[in-house]
Task: inverse folding
């Protein structure tokens, strides 16, 4: 099997994933998953698509993460892994979609508008 690559995005985070057959090793920017995401919750989020398809020990994953915070990066990585797994076996798409791993979350931070302190907040109104 050759390298399968996929892209995942969430908020400002972008994850590029390269999947090869292997022993289940996940490397993110030359660091292990445990080093990059010390939180067990975020490690769980990243591994969700692999657990769902029961192929945790089947593929080696190398990922490059860019932008955003750690939560957005973890969810971007989850989407990228899901997309890569679907490239390998298209029949898995229905299973991953049912779990919600194939949907790109479109929510992101709204831009700040000129003449306002934040995106929607207005300066205090003064009658006099």
Result:
């Amino acid at each position: 099997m050759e390298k399968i690559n996929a892209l995942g995005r969430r908020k400002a985070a972008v994850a590029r994933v390269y999947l090869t057959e292997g022993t289940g090793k996940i490397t993110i920017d030359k660091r292990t998953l445990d080093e990059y995401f010390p939180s067990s919750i975020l490690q769980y989020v990243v591994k969700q698509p692999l657990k769902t398809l029961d192929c945790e020990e089947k593929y080696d994953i190398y990922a490059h993460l860019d932008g955003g915070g750690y939560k957005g990066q973890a969810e971007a990585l989850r989407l990228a892994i899901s997309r890569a797994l679907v490239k390998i076996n298209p029949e898995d798409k229905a299973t991953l979609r049912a779990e919600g791993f194939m949907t790109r979350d479109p929510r992101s931070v709204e831009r700040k508008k000129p003449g306002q302190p934040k995106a929607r907040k207005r300066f205090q109104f003064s009658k006099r």
User: Anything to note?
Assistant: Helices lie at 33-36, 40-52, 70-88, 93-99. The longest strand covers residues 13-21. The chain is about 35% helix and 25% strand. The mean pLDDT is 93.
